[in-house]
């Protein structure tokens, strides 16, 4: 019998009120890993009630910000102590390479430590108004119960990115993890209890988006939604939040350009292109899926990228030698394949990859794929594929490539490869993307704020500015 996981509400495992569970499968081996509670509106209601009571409970409400920081620091320590267990769990759940997860787990505590340090630095100011008689000051206060909804591609990091600032500011949380990756988030909540967070401060309801996610968004007890996921779901969530005038932070999809100029170190750029699109089998929001190469180095870059793509070791994500694991579930594999077929029907050429590679394991593997003969108007270059598929296009001038790079509905990230400093600054200024990398790709830190432009998001995650997403400003007037 596979293991069975319940919701985590008010510091305890709680069975789903309707008694239903759903199964989670290892995408590499297709073995059933465990079953998790299939949450409904009733479970969500119980979790929001618990979080609401915990928000007003003096054990949390009156805890000093410094002590909230201590709890986050302790949680960071526990995450570090359980790094191997968490890395293995996430790797089995979504097929990410174990060695990549081990790397992520070494930095994950830093997220908690960073916000631990910010907990007692949330402050207001004294305002000089037109009347000297009046003392006017501002203070930042917690919002209440935050609903956090996260995707499957990086559940631990993405949940921690929401949980840490929300708790540092004094909120409580109900988290709805992706139905494909329930257990790491449940484990994180258990560790939070072990760290000393009072019962009810962190609650997790597992289940499907329409059955558990939507009721969380619509629940009147929620003061804010923090969501990471697809642009389509984000749009529905934003509409619901707007109807109740609650705020939302939305981290959504991308179709990021990775631009290689003629003056770049082409070998380095090729490695950057590879890492940008094939890391995590392309299942990252920041995937550099549109590659623009200056015509004079186009062939050279293409050759280097294709050669490396062909040599990528595909297979069991638990092995140290593996470089590319499976896609996370069957529908992902079908979606990626149908985009490649669509590209071909639109006139693209599959330079390498396309289809399932020859791998012994029965999972949802997809070969690293390079498409040529594409332009920026095709669906494969306009829509997020969320798989290991790079579309490589030539360009002739800086002005032309800026136009092409910005000609997208998304604005999450962009990469630039050049040795010309002035050009690097010019591109950074003019690219319509929340993150621009120059001569690197995928660099990230809890200290560095990130924001999706255009359809890639609303609000800021990470960095000092993210604390404003989880607090509201009060202005106090005192007649002296
Ligand atoms: P998704 O939108 O399908 O699901 C995300 C979460 O929302 C899941 O927990 C799901 O159960 C829930 N959900 C689905 N429908 C819902 C509804 N109607 N109401 C409330 N909740 C609902 O996204 P996904 O497939 O899990 O994740 C992949 C997407 O996430 C990609 O588009 C990717 O670019 C994006 N992403 C963005 C970032 C970022 O930081 N910008 C990071 C990672 C992933």
UniProtKB/TrEMBL annotation:
Outline the extent of the Aldehyde dehydrogenase domain. Answer: 20-476
GO MF terms listed in the record are: oxidoreductase activity, acting on the aldehyde or oxo group of donors, NAD or NADP as acceptor
Q: Where are the transmembrane segments?
A: none
The cross-references to CDD domains, in alphabetical order and at most eight, read: ALDH_DhaS
Q: List the InterPro entries.
A: Ald_DH/histidinol_DH, Ald_DH_C, Ald_DH_CS_CYS, Ald_DH_CS_GLU, Ald_DH_N, Aldehyde_DH_dom
Entries under Pfam families matching the protein: Aldedh (PF00171)
UniProt keyword terms in alphabetical order: Oxidoreductase
**Catalytic residue list:** 251
Instruction: Give the family per the record.
Output: Belongs to the aldehyde dehydrogenase family.
This one is known as Carnitine dehydratase
């Amino acid at each position: 019998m596979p293991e069975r996981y319940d919701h985590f509400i008010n510091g305890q495992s709680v069975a789903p009120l309707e008694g239903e569970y759903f199964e989670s499968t290892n995408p590499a081996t297709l073995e059933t890993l465990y079953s998790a509670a299939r949450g409904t509106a009733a479970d969500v209601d119980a979790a929001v009630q618990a979080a609401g009571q915990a928000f007003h409970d003096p054990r949390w409400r009156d805890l000093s910000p410094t002590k909230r920081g201590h709890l986050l620091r302790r949680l960071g320590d526990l995450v570090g102590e359980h790094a191997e267990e968490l890395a293995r769990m996430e790797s089995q759940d979504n097929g990410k390479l174990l060695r990549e997860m081990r790397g992520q787990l070494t930095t994950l505590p830093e997220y908690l430590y960073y916000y631990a340090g910010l907990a007692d630095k949330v402050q207001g100011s004294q305002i000089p108004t037109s009347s000297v008689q009046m003392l006017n000051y501002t203070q930042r206060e917690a919002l209440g119960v935050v609903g956090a909804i996260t995707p499957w591609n990086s559940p631990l990091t993405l949940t921690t990115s929401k949980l840490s600032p929300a708790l540092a500011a004094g909120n409580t949380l109900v988290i709805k993890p992706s139905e494909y990756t329930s257990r790491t988030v449940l484990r994180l909540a258990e560790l939070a209890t072990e760290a000393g967070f009072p019962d009810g401060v962190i609650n997790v309801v597992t289940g499907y988006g329409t059955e558990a996610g939507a009721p969380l968004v619509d629940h009147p007890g929620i003061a804010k939604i923090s969501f990471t996921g697809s642009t389509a779901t984000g749009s529905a969530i934003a509409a619901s939040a707007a109807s109740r005038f609650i705020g939302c932070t939305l981290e959504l999809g991308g179709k990021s350009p990775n631009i290689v100029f003629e003056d770049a170190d082409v070998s380095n750029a090729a490695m950057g292109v590879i890492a940008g699109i094939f890391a995590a089998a392309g299942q990252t929001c920041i995937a550099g899926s549109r590659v623009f190469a200056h015509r004079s180095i186009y062939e050279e870059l293409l050759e280097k990228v294709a050669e490396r793509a062909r040599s990528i070791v595909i297979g069991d994500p638990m092995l140290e030698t593996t470089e590319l694991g499976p896609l996370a579930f069957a529908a992902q594999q079908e979606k990626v394949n149908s985009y490649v077929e669509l590209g071909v029907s639109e006139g693209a050429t599959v330079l390498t990859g396309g289809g399932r590679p020859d791998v012994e394991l029965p999972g949802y593997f997809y070969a690293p794929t390079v498409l040529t003969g594409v332009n920026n108007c095709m669906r494969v270059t306009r829509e997020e594929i969320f798989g290991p598929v790079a579309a490589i296009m030539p360009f002739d001038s800086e002005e032309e490539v800026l136009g092409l790079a910005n000609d997208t509905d998304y604005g999450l990230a962009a990469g630039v490869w050049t040795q010309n400093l002035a050009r690097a600054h010019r591109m950074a200024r003019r690219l319509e993307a929340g993150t621009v990398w120059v001569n690197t790709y995928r660099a990230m830190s809890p200290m560095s704020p990130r924001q999706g432009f255009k359809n890639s998001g609303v609000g800021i995650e990470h960095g000092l500015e993210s604390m404003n997403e989880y607090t509201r400003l009060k202005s106090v007037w005192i007649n002296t």
